[in-house]
Design brief:
With 613 residues, the chain is of the alpha+beta class. The chain folds into 4 domains: 212 residues, Histidine kinase-like ATPase, C-terminal domain (Heat Shock Protein 90); 130 residues, Ribosomal Protein S5, domain 2 (2-Layer Sandwich); 80 residues, 3-Layer(aba) Sandwich (Rossmann fold), CATH 3.40.50; 119 residues, Four Helix Bundle (Hemerythrin (Met), subunit A) (Up-down Bundle), CATH 1.20.120. It has 19 helices and 22 strands. The chain is elongated and about 120 Å long. Homodimer.
Length: 613
Amino acid sequence: MSDTVERHEFGAEVGRLLDLVVHALYSDREIFLRELVANAADATDRRRFEALTDPALMAPEGARLRIVPDKAARTLTISDSGIGMSKADLVQHLGTIARSGTAAFAKTLADAPAADKPSLIGQFGVGFYSAFMVAERVEVTSRRAGAEEAWLWASEGRGDYTLAPAERAEAGTDIVLHMKPDAEEFLEPIRLQTIIRKWADHITIPITVTKDGVDEPANEGTALWRKSKSEVTEEQTTEFYRHLGNIFDQPWATLHWRAEGALDFTALLFIPGMKPFQAVEGERESRVRLHVRRMFITDEAALLPPWLRFVQGVVDTEDLPLNVSREMLQATPVLARIRRAVTSRVLSELKNKAKDAESYAGFWENFGAVVKEGVWEDAEHRKDLAPLLRFRSSAVEGWTSLPDYVARMKPGQEAIYVLLGDNAEALAKSPQLEGFRAKGVEVLLLTDQIDAFWPERLEKFEDKPIRSITQGSIDLSAVEGAAQEGEAADLGRLLPLLKDALKDHVADVRGTDRLVDSAVVLAAGEMGPDLQMQRLLRRAGRGFPGGSMGGLPVLEVNPRHALIRRLAEKAATETDLADSAGLLLDLARVQDGDTPRDPVAFARRVAEALAIG
């Protein structure tokens, strides 16, 4: 070995730490390229900053970051025209694990004007050593801006490194990775371009990848979210939105802001103008992208709660290290504060957009079912979300809100009434509404599966309890309205006979005054789930019938209906009303959009009844 080559031992327990970096710190091997690109971009920003006070350090025109794969030599070279490193810098920054040149440099910026501070990206700490995930040997040739000599740092990542004089025509750094046999995929130009587009598409320094001897652009180089709103056109934001989500619609809402103070981050978020092709009901994680100083970190940071997972975009912060791991993301309080701030901002935007009823209706049709999930699962934001909910109604056209419903409540009305089912048009014709319509009482029609759950958590709105009209008995006598017409039958003998005939299918049979035109209707017990929840349980193979979770329904009969009056007369002389009782129950089930218990037997009973009639 030449006398000019110096061999050094790594500092800071290099064996253990290198093993950690290579095998445990990163889950994706391609991360190495993100780290090295980040360091190169940071070095370029640092040189630009220092040139403000020393013009001699100015980088040449057209400076860029070049990535050159060489399959024949099995090497990958990453070159920049940044600030470069002296021999002492190489020892200090690359010879000691977890010592950050960027962090040390950042301390010098405390008194610099804000406009002059470069946007620092990489941190020469453990990130550099991710190169050893894919390389069996790493060589770094670097020349410090303003210096004449260059130095070569080399290591196989096994406990030591060498330093030797080198040649480099201009200031900057060349990193040569001698790739491992199982990492040759990273010598494919298309693979490299894909990684750059994924992780560093918006790094402002131009990045090229050499393909067939030609340097091809690999990044867009414009971080729109870092610009002020006045600098970005609507066309640019729409193009970015479409690129981000691989969709072609217009965003319904665009949120672009910068938070400064206790938190420092920039956000560019979009609420889509249409449902994605992949249903948002299935995927429950937010995919807003987290960037650190323009560099993509992950889209799995859960920057928004699941009930805002339709929101797309980027959050870029200064307050996290670039090489933060996913495990660290889950634990850091900084990210928790960013989550709260971003969620609050999106909620504020929804409240503002809700003032335009027509526009908000389109949003609600696309994503309303997802927003309702927040009422169910998010106690912190439940009360904020309640006024944003929209519903179909038995009394008004289009969508209505809880505040509007409460404003229309009748004198003497004690609760907000809801009816749950699968289809709003079918619900609007339901016999369940007859008594409420007669009294002029409005009922909200709920048709999403989540509607079976969230009212239980919200419980009340503006001190008005939320009640399903199919659950328990509801007394509307305090509400002024038209009185029921017709003579009521004496049900004293009929009800016990019906209950006995249906003892395996219903919990009770009782008279009701909430029907006008229909003979019967089903209701749920006071304490059990309402009818829609019972249907969901039954479809899932649980509960009623054949189980206790869903309970058994209550059959309510209208004593003023001609059919019930006739059955009451029969009950005076007959003791077997099994067929009639079964027919009443099946009629009630059909009215609620359900199927008869035994369709064949139901058809037979109907035919016999028609023949008798």
